[in-house]
Structure formats: C-alpha cells, structure tokens
Amino acid sequence: DAKTTQPPSMDCAEGRAANLPCNHSTISGNEYVYWYRQIHSQGPQYIIHGLKNNETNEMASLIITEDRKSSTLILPHATLRDTAVYYCIVTSSGSARQLTFGSGTQLTVLP
Amino acid sequence: DGGITQSPKYLFRKEGQNVTLSCEQNLNHDAMYWYRQDPGQGLRLIYYSQIVNDFQKGDIAEGYSVSREKKESFPLTVTSAQKNPTAFYLCASRPLGTSGAHEQFFGPGTRLTVL
Q: Are B45 and A49 within 8 A, CB to CB?
C-alpha cells in the first residue's frame, strides 16, 4: 500500500470549512484513497473514499488531484463534534489485509 | 441494529495472566481484524482473518493469538508473552468482494490495563 503524509495538526473555526490535505505520491492505479476519523477513545469512523473522481457524501467531500498524488478532505461546515484525528489511507480494493494507519491529522475545531 | 461489539470496554489484569478480548459482528462480513493503538499513535495490525478457520499475522502478532471458529466471532487472546500489553484494542470487520472498495467498520474498542 502507498504511504501517505499528513500534517500533524490543524485548527479550524466552528462553522468554517475544514480542508485536510494528504500526500500520496506513490499511489498506484488500483489504489483507493480512504478517509477515517477517530474521536478520542472511540473506534475509527469511515468518512469517504475515492479512486479518481471527486466524491461527496453527507459527511464530507473528497477532492483528488488529476495525477492522484494528493487529496483533500473537506468538512464544509465544521462543528465542535468534528474535533478528531483524521486518517488518510491508501489501499487497493482487492486487498483483504489491513488499512495502514499513520499518525493522522489532529483537527481541532475552535468555538 | 447491525454492528460490531467488543467487550468489555475496560479490562484490568495482573501481569503474567492471559486475557481474552471479545469481538462479535452481525454484519455478515467475511474479514475481521484486530488492531492495537498506543497513546498518540496510529493503529497497528495484530491479526486478520478472511474466512472461518483461517487467519494471518499482522505487523505485531508476537504475544497474541486468535481463533475464527464462527464467521461472526474473532476473539483475541493477549498472552503473558506479550511484553507490553497495556493498550487500546480495536476490532474491525469488512465485506470482501471482487470489485469496488469496501470500508472497514470498527468496534468501540477495549482498553486493557495490565497491573
């Protein structure tokens, strides 16, 4: 699985958009980009995933660059409950193995 | 409701004792996983299983054992050989398919403290 690089921490004002970047320059053609988040002392929660195209669901939007070497998770209107560690993970769809979690980005939403 | 349950939420054991952590899922998922998380760190894979009666070691399997006798159950035993067992343990499951992407679903975790 490709390795990912994320900033260790970010702050965001409540009600504003939170944009979390992720670099995955060694991603291969069959690898998806997944985003999870983990609120303190809970299990990680799936947010969104994508292959090439931008994706949107009720939680977030995922923007993947044309060369697929980086992506951005967008929380359009951050709330205090969005404070969590956000993990960007790249893995192939056919892999039954694990998702490789790095250290992620600690997002703190400020009132 | 469908989901993954882990019990207990908090577990205390004396050093040198084996302890078994429970993980049950009613999502009919084929694959199940055990992760360990230390403070301020990401998740590290201990074991995973794709099918009943079969499992594979992850990155940090030493000192742990698992079984997969039923599709819905994947218990983890932390043995006395695990040198530093105090950690947060997370179980996950995932459907396996021939196409598309499938996310993992996580349980609430068990926090094990060895005294």
A: no
